[in-house]
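Researcher: Here's the sequence for the chain we discussed earlier.
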Amino acid sequence: MKPEEVIAALKKKGLKLAIAESLTGGLLCSELVSVPGASKVVLGSIVAYQSGLKASALGVSTELLERVGAVDPEVALKMAAGVRSRLALQLMLATDQVIGVSTTGVAGPDAQDGKPVGLVYIAISGAMGDRVWEESISGDRQAIRVKSVEQVFAKIGEYLAPKAS
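Model: Thanks. This is the structure I predict for it:
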């Protein structure tokens, strides 16, 4: 999916988007808000690059962060759920109207906490359930960040697609 397709799909479903970024450092939100009309669906983004901010701003437990590190599927899910509930509450929206999406990973140039460069977790939390994807993305630091954003768009499309019965 392209950013404009993500915005259109969210509008069609009547959903709002809350974003928690670590690895992508604001790039995800920037790509989305470049689309005219994005303000109808994008609530905002919290760039929680440091673990302490993942805990204080997104509600990820410090115990979890100390135990597994910042690059972990459970951390990604907690980030997505945390941004979803916090932004919905701040804007007085029902959480079933909001999906939260998060990115965490290792862009390099060095491994982090024993996790290899290119390991990325993308999570979505919403009324249709919580999902997390693990990606292995190659390239330099910028390429990993850009490809991660592209993967987020694809995952949002997958999440919003009607389930085959």
